[in-house]
Design goal:
Chain lengths: 459, 580
Amino acid sequence: MSGKEYRTITDVKGPLVFLEKTEPVAYGEIVQLRLTDGSMKNGQVLDTSDDMVVVQVFEGTAGVDLGTGVKFMGDVFKLPVSKDLIGRILDGAGRPRDGGPAIVAEGEADIIGAAINPYSRQSPHDFIQTGISAIDCCTTLVRGQKLPIFSASGLPHNDIALQIARQAKLKDSDEEFIVVFCAMGITAEEYNFFRSDLERTGALENAVLFVNLADDPAVERLITPRLALTAAEYLAFEHDYHVLVVYTDVTNYCDALRQIGAAREEVPGRRGYPGYMYTDLAMLYERAGLVKGKKGSITQFPILTMPGDDITHPIPDLSGYITEGQIVISRELHGSGIYPPINVLPSLSRLMGGCIGEKTTREDHKSVSDQMYAAYAQGRELRGLVAIVGEDALNERDKQLLDFSGLFEDKFLRQSRDEDRSIDETLDLCWDLMQNISTKYLVRLDQKWIDKYHPTEKK
Amino acid sequence: MSDENGVIYRISGPVVTATGIRSRMYEVVRVGHEGLMGEVIELHGDKSVIQVYEDTSGIRPGEPVVRTGQTLSVQLGPGLLTQIYDGIQRPLPVLEKTMGTFIERGVDADGLDLEKVWDFEATVSVGDEVAPGAVIGTVQETETIVHKVMLPPNHSGKVASIESGSFNVTQTVCTLEDGTEIQMMQKWPVRTPRPYHQKYAPDTPLVTGMRILDFLFPLAKGGAAGIPGPFGSGKTVTQQSLAKYSDAQIVVYIGCGERGNEMTEVLDEFPHLIDPNTGKPLMNRTVMIANTSNMPVAAREASVYTGITIAEYFRDMGYDVALMADSTSRWAEAMREISSRLEEMPGEEGYPAYLSSRLAEFYERAGRVETLEGEDGSVTVIGAVSPPGGDISEPVSQGTLRIVKVFWGLDAGLARQRHFPAINWLSSYSLYPQSLDQWFRDNIASDFPEIRTEISSLLQVEAELQEIVQLVGSDALPVDQQLTLEVARMIREFFLQQNGFHEVDAYSGLEQQYKMAKAILTFQDSAKKALAAGGQLEDVVNVPARTNLMRDRFEAGYLDRVDGLVDEMNKQIAAAAEDN
Ligand SMILES: Nc1ncnc2c1ncn2[C@@H]1O[C@H](COP(=O)(O)OP(=O)(O)O)[C@@H](O)[C@H]1O
Ligand SMILES: [Mg+2]
C-alpha cells in the first residue's frame, strides 16, 4: 500500500510534524514528505490515533510547511539485505554513498530487530586477541561481546578502535572478521581517517559502512545504527560471518534522542535525556552475541565520548549498565604521552572470567591479571600520598608498589600503534615487570605460577 | 459493537488506547489482528488505556481489541521448577520452539506444560474436611523438591473423591462435596498477594556462604535486602551467588531489564552446579524469569509480580523461598516509561508519584508466615538497585532503603581495587542481628555476636587510622596502631574478600566463618604479646605460617585444617619475638 498523499499538517515542531485525521496509520510506519519546492524527506510515525498522527522527520523539518504532502508507505522501516552489502558504503539512511548500484536485495529485514530469546543465546567464550596488552591481559575481549570504549574529546579512541579492528583475531586462527562500521554524527575528517585506514589495510573490501556525518540530518542518526546492526545480524546469522560492529559516536546518537524527546514535550530524565534512553540503548547493545545453532557472531565495539570526561554522565552510565564491560581512555595518561592511554582500573570485561585460562589463553592469566591490576591500583593510590608526605615516609612494600605503577604505564601499557603483541608476550611481560615487587607482597599470585613462571624464583 | 469487542483508537509505543469496550482495571485484553496481550491500566470515560506486552510497530487504529475477562495471572502447579519464563510467564523454550531464535510477537504459551503427566499422591481421604490452602496431595516435581498440591485459597469443603495416580495439571484429582473439581493447576492474579494466616518476626538467618553477609550483615529468612551499586560493582554476581549458595529451598531469580547473556550464563551453569545444601544440581530448586533490557517494557513491569507470586505459592507449601530481582531499578523505569506515556503528573526524577508505594507493596510480600495450612514458610526478597551514576540519593534507592532492613552497599572504589564482594563494610547495615543473635549463639558459637562486634570495630578503627595515614604515612604511627592496621588488612584480604567464582572459597560455611574470624583475633593477641616481648613488627606480621593460614582457604577441607594452621602461626610468632 502506498496510499494517497495528505495535506493535513497542523503543527510543525522541531523534528516533528503533526497531522490531522488520516486513514489508519500504523505505529512505526515509514512516511514520505513532499515539500512545496518538490524536494523529498523521510520520516516515521511516533504516535497514531483516529484524530492525529505524529511523524518524526529524519532530515529535520527545515522547509516543511502546512502545504507539505505526506504519504504513508504502509510498512515499517526495512533494510534490503544481501551479501552484496559487503564492501559497500551507504549513507545514514541506507542509500549507496559510494556511487555504486543499488543493493540487490535477497530479503528485507525490519530494522528494529526482535529481541534474541535469552534461552536461544549461547554464552560467548572465545578469546579475541587484540594485540594490545592492556586489553588482552586486563579486560579481555570475547567474541560476541559488547565492549564499548568510554573516551572523551581529543583522545585517541579512533586509533585504538582501528588498531583493534586490524589486529583482532582468534588465537591460533586466521579467521577474519567482517567489519560493520557505523558513523553517527562524526566529522568528515574523522570519517576519512577511518575509511582510509580500512582502505590502506584492505579491510574495506570486507567491510560495510553506514555513514551519517556531522552535517547530515541529526534525526537520521536514530536509524543509522539500527541499519548497521540489521546488516550485522543478517551477515552473522544468515551467512555465518563473524562480525565486528564499530559504531561511533553513541553520544551523538543520544543527543538526537534527546532532541526528539524535547520536541514531544516529554518529561525529561537526567540531564534532559529521555527516561526511556536505557531501553532504547539496550535495543542496540543487546543485538550482540552468539545464538545456538548458528556459526556467526556479533561483537560490538561502540565508541562514546563522555561529556566533560564524566563517567557518571547518563550516556556512559546507562551504557555501562547494559554493555559487558567498558574500556576507559584516560586524559591523564594521554597527557603523559602514553599510547594507548587505557586506564585499566575503571575498565572491565565482564565476560573475561569465562574465556581465559589454560585452554584458551594461558593457565596463569587470571592470577597474573589480578596481581598486575591490584599492584597497579595500590601503586596509583600511593602517588597521592607521596605528594603529601614524600617518598621517605613509605615502607618497603609501598615503595615497591609505587615504582611498579610507573613501570606498568611505561612498559606494559605503552606500545606503538602497529605493535601486535601475542598473549604469551603480554603475560611474559607481566612476569618481567612483577620481578620488581618482592614475592611476599604478590599475594594474588598462586604459588604454583610463581614456581613455574617467575623469572628469578621459578623452580 | 458489543462491550466485549472494541477498536484501537491510539497507539503510542507500548501504550494503546481502545474505545468501545467496557473493560475492568487490570483486565487482560487482546490487541490488534495479531491478538497481542495487554493489560488495562487506566479507564477514561469510554476509553480503556492498555499496556501491551509486545512490540506494537505496524499496528493501526481501527484494529480490534477483545476482552478476556481475566486479570493478569500466572499458572501455578507442578512444572514451574527448572523453567525459564519471560515477564508474563511464557516459557522461553516454548517460544524458541514456535518462533526460533528471535522473539516475534503474537504467540501465546501456557506457563505450565498442560500435557505432562505427574504422579499425584493423595494425602487426604474421602470425607476429610479441607480448608482453603490445605494440602491434598503431593508430586515429586524434581529430584529434591516435593510439590504440594493445595486447595486454592478460595475453596474449602468435604472431599467427595480423590485418587492417587498419573494426571496432567488440568485433570481433576479431587472433587469436593459441593461439586467443585480441583486440578493440580491453579491460577492466581499476580498483583494480589496470596493469603496466609499470620506473619511472624523472622528469627533464622538466610545463610549465604558469603562471609561479609552472614557474619557482618546477616539477612533473615523472610526478610528483605537491597543491593544498590553502580554498574560493575557486583550486583549481579552477588545475586547469582545468593541463588547458588543460600540455604533457601526454592529460588526465584528474576532478570528484570538486564543482560541476555547473564540469563544464559545461569541457564548454562545451574544444571551443573551442585547445591551445597542438598548435594543435587541447583536447577532443581530454581525458577527463572528473564525479561531482558531489550524485551518489551510492559512485560518487564509485570515480571516482578510474576516472580513474587510464584515465590508466594512455594511459600504456601511451607518452603523457605528466596527471590532475587536484578534489577528493581529497571522495573521502576518501566513504570516511569508507562506513566509518562499516560501523561501522568510526574514525581521526582520523572518517576510516577506512586513509585514508593509500589516498592513498599512489593517488599511487603516478603515475610515469614504461618501458611493457611499452619506450616512455617518464608519469602526472602533481595533486590538489586542500579542508581544512576552510583548516587543513592535517587528515588528508587531511597524508596527501597526506607523499607528493607538490610542494606548491602556496593562500592565502585572497592570494585576498582578488585576487592570482591565490593560491599562497603562501613556504610552497609543489617537491622536483623538483634533477632538472629540467639540463633547464632545456639547453632554456631555462644560468643558469635561478640566476635562480630570485635571484627566490626577493628574495621571502624582502621578507617579512622587511615585518615591519619593519609596525612603522615603509616610509618609515623605508633607500633600498636601499625599492628591494628595489619589486623584490619587481614580482615579485609582474608575474611571479607571472597571471589564469587572460586571453586572452593566462593562458599564458606558459618562454622568456618567463625573460625576464620577467631583466627584473626588470635593473630592480634599473639602479635601483641610478641611485640610486648620485644619482637619487631616486620618479623611478627611476616611469619610464613600466617601467609599459609591465609592462602590455604583456597584449598578444599580448610575447616579441618584451620586450628592446626593457627597453632603453627602462634608458634612462629612467639619464635619471632624470641629471636630478638
Ligand atoms: N564476588 C565477586 N567475585 C569476583 N568477581 C566479582 C564479584 N563481584 C563482581 N565481580 C566482578 O565484577 C564484574 C561486575 O560485576 P556485576 O555483578 O556484573 O556488576 P553489576 O551487576 O553491579 O553491574 C564481574 O564481571 C566480575 O568480574
Ligand atoms: Mg548487573
